[in-house]
Amino acid sequence: MSSSASSQTNNYNISITPRAEAHIRNQLELTHAKHLRLGVKESGCNGYMYLLDFLELPERNDLQIDFGNGVNLCVSQTDLSLVEGTEVDLVTQGLNSALVFKNPKATSYCGCGESFALGGVTGETGNTSTGQSVATDLATDVGSK
Known about the structure:
The chain is mainly β and 145 residues long. It has a single domain (6-142), classed as HesB-like domain (Hypothetical Protein Aq_1857, Chain: A, Sandwich). Helix content is 12%, strand content 43%.
């Protein structure tokens, strides 16, 4: 672990459902990664999209949230304001499963579910593309119901 990365209890209201936690733990084992980074980038028709990276080591500015049982989530301090309060869930439809994100700050989602908008949040997002393997294909944004 980088000496500058800080390990935190979950003071950011980021949650992972038990199904998503089991899926993430399995993916971490399959990729031999130690951490999963949750981040965002400016993209899509609505402004932002989620990124997931499997990591061996957190980056210097990452906050770490230990969910226990081998699930350690990293969030760049730059991206924290955009993902704070997000619930990560695993949804299965037919034979397909995907991680979905329920972000209470999201004000709208595009029709294809790939991007979301945040009301009143501006600024650049961090670079989250340095991980071992990007898992973006497994991620979908969903609105609160």
